[in-house]
Structure formats: structure tokens, C-alpha cells
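in:
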């Protein structure tokens, strides 16, 4: 099979994590960009990237690039491409667009103009045109314009890859699965100790932690990828890729727990863990973090997404002060990581963060913070580390 360049889109701050994932999977000629990483592979690798990458949102297959200085040039260049090679006149299409340009200022207009060009080509050639289906199209096309340069790509993923397929129940503002996986990888989580999410909500972080620990492909439970509707879809090849990935699943000999004080959250998290087929590895308990203490001997890895003002009505200063007190008094021998989007809240924790990493939780800028809670003397703990 021929190799070609592809683009994996990701969230801000995860470019180097995604690049490492691609390297570990066997990608070639990896280049980091802004919220994306480009790489070279064949069709089988495209299938593998969609199935196995934890921090990718989309895998795009670039098709054509050209300069555009007007709306008419965009229309003409799109229209002359042989779209009938990739979809049937009775099929459906959807177009996503992103623009960073002085000439083109509205991404929706670019998508509409591109759609007009494609359907006009079909109408002129066949006397009829394909329909638009924004949810389940036969072909999803990505148009990206940077100033006067237009890139046309095929979206091999379809729905964003954060939609893993295991989450049927959610709480208020659940954390994005790609964000959860990226924070876990960034924190150094590798499944070699016990893990706790003390404010687990619908269970996303413990589920992603278990999939990393067991090396389970993150999109194994997903119902569909866009490439399954492409003309060159090779089901046998995909099954071989999936079988090969499943052979690399490994045993896990520690405990992964999630706490939440809300019975509804515990019920939702338990259901999602079951959907992900991870009930043997993840335990969800109804428990308030502020009334808890470390239950495990040895090192504990903790990562969580505390409530914030937009998500839940809380007294920020008091709440984050309690986080600091609980960590300090109840969790010796722990590396605790959490994401905070309220910078005043960070000051209320009352502990010194050993790392602060800029990330975004949805549209909100935040920091992924690391707190090292020593067991015994600091000097002795460093020697043990």
C-alpha cells in the first residue's frame, strides 16, 4: 500500500504527547504543528491511528491544496476536483471548515460555497446532486484556509475521536475524553501503581486511566469511523489491525478508584465503566474526598477535574482550601494532579505546585497542576523516588 501524509488534530498543549503516541505506533516523518501533528503512513496505519490514538481529535487525509484570492477562485478550484471518484451521486456529504484569513472571514460561508461547487459539478455531470447529511455523511470533507492558501482534506474519523462510545450517561459538563487521556499521559501515568480520581463525575478519568494501564485501544467501543463509508474501505484489513492492537493489551495488578459524593454521579460512572468493559479494573465509590484519606500502601497517583464556577455553584476559596488541606493531611506518598481554570482558586490550595502546565478545558484557559505530597521527610522521599 502507498504511504501518504496525514494530519492528526489535537487540543492545545498535547502536540508533543500526540507525536510520541504516533512514534510508538510506528508513524514516519512526524512533524508537530499548532494543535496538530502531521505524519506519514499507509491506509492500514490510518485505521490504526483512529483506533489507537488517545490524544487525537481527528485524522485527516489531505487531498488537494491551492491558492485562493477570492470566493470565485475557491468555488472554481473546488468544482474542478473529481468528486465522483470518492462518492456516489446518490450519496451524502458534509463539509467542516476553518479559516484564518483576511480574504475569507466566515467559516460557514466557506463551507457553503464549497458545498455549492461540489453539488454543481454533480448536477452538471449527472443531472442530479448528492444531499447534505451533517450527522452521518458518506463523505466528510475538511476545508482549511490559512490566509490565501486552501487545504482540502478527507476526514477519516467522522465524529470527534473523543466520542469513544462508552459514555451513555454524563453529569454536568463532563470532561472531554481526549483532555482526560492527555492529562493522564502528561502526568506520567503508566499503570504501575494505584490510581485515584477523588471527584470522578461520570467516570471519564478512571476509565481513560484503565485503558492506558491495560493498553486497550481507546476507540475500541466506538460504533463507526468515517473511513468505513469510503470507496476503498477494507474491512479485512481493519479487522487485522484491531486484532493486532488487542494482542498488545496487558495485565494490570493495581487498583483504580473513583470517588464522588453524589449518588447520581456514582450511578452514571458505574454504568460508563460497565459500558467500557472495565468493571474488573475500576471501582466507583460514593464518598466525599474531603472526608477521605489514602487507602493504599505505597505510592498513589491521583488526577482529577474539580468543580469550577461555571460547572457548579461553590465557594471557590473554601472549596480549593479544603482540597489542599485534604491532600496535605490525608494523602502522604501521593502525586496529585488536577486542572483548574480559576486562577484565584489555585492560590487557595495552600500548597506549592511543583508543575503548572497551560491547557484549555473547553474554551476556558486553565493550568494542570502537580502537587507532591511526601511521606515522612522530604529528603527521604526524594531518595525513594
Amino acid at each position: 500500500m502507498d504511504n501518504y501524509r496525514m494530519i492528526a488534530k489535537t487540543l492545545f498543549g498535547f502536540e508533543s504527547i500526540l507525536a510520541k503516541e504516533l512514534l510508538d505506533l510506528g508513524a514516519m516523518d512526524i512533524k508537530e504543528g499548532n494543535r496538530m501533528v502531521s505524519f506519514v503512513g499507509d491506509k492500514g496505519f490510518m485505521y490504526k491511528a483512529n483506533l489507537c490514538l488517545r490524544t487525537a481529535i481527528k485524522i485527516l487525509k489531505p487531498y488537494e491544496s491551492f491558492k485562493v484570492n477570492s470566493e470565485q477562485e475557491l468555488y472554481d478550484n473546488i468544482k474542478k476536483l473529481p468528486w465522483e471518484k470518492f462518492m456516489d451521486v446518490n450519496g451524502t456529504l458534509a463539509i467542516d471548515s476553518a479559516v484564518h484569513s483576511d480574504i475569507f472571514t466566515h467559516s460557514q460561508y466557506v463551507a457553503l460555497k464549497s458545498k455549492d461547487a461540489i453539488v454543481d459539478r454533480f448536477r452538471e455531470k449527472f443531472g442530479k446532486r448528492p444531499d447534505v447529511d451533517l450527522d452521518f455523511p458518506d463523505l466528510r470533507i475538511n476545508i482549511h484556509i490559512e490566509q490565501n492558501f486552501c487545504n482540502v482534506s478527507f476526514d477519516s474519523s467522522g465524529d470527534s475521536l473523543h466520542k469513544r462510545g462508552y459514555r451513555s450517561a454524563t453529569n454536568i459538563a463532563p470532561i472531554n475524553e481526549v483532555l482526560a487521556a492527555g492529562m493522564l499521559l502528561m502526568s506520567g501515568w503508566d499503570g504501575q501503581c494505584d490510581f485515584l480520581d477523588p471527584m470522578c463525575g461520570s467516570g471519564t478519568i478512571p476509565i481513560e486511566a484503565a485503558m492506558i494501564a491495560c493498553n486497550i485501544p481507546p476507540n475500541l467501543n466506538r460504533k463507526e469511523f468515517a473511513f468505513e463509508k469510503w470507496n476503498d474501505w477494507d474491512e479485512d484489513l481493519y479487522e487485522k489491525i484491531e486484532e493486532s492492537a488487542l494482542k498488545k493489551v496487558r495485565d494490570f495488578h493495581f487498583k483504580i478508584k473513583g470517588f464522588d459524593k453524589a449518588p447520581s454521579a456514582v450511578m452514571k460512572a458505574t454504568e460508563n465503566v460497565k459500558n467500557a468493559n472495565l468493571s474488573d479494573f475500576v471501582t466507583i465509590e460514593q464518598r466525599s474526598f474531603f472526608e477521605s484519606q489514602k487507602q493504599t500502601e505505597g505510592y498513589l497517583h491521583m488526577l482529577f477535574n474539580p468543580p469550577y464556577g461555571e460547572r457548579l455553584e461553590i465557594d471557590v476559596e473554601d472549596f480549593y482550601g479544603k482540597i489542599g488541606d485534604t491532600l496535605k493531611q490525608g494523602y502522604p506518598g501521593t502525586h496529585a494532579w488536577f486542572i483548574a481554570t480559576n486562577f484565584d482558586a489555585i492560590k487557595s490550595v495552600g500548597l506549592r505546585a511543583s508543575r503548572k502546565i497551560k491547557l484549555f478545558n473547553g474554551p476556558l484557559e486553565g493550568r494542570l497542576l502537580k502537587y507532591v505530597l511526601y511521606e515522612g521527610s522530604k529528603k527521604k522521599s526524594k531518595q525513594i523516588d
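note: The first strand starts at residue 4 and ends at 9.
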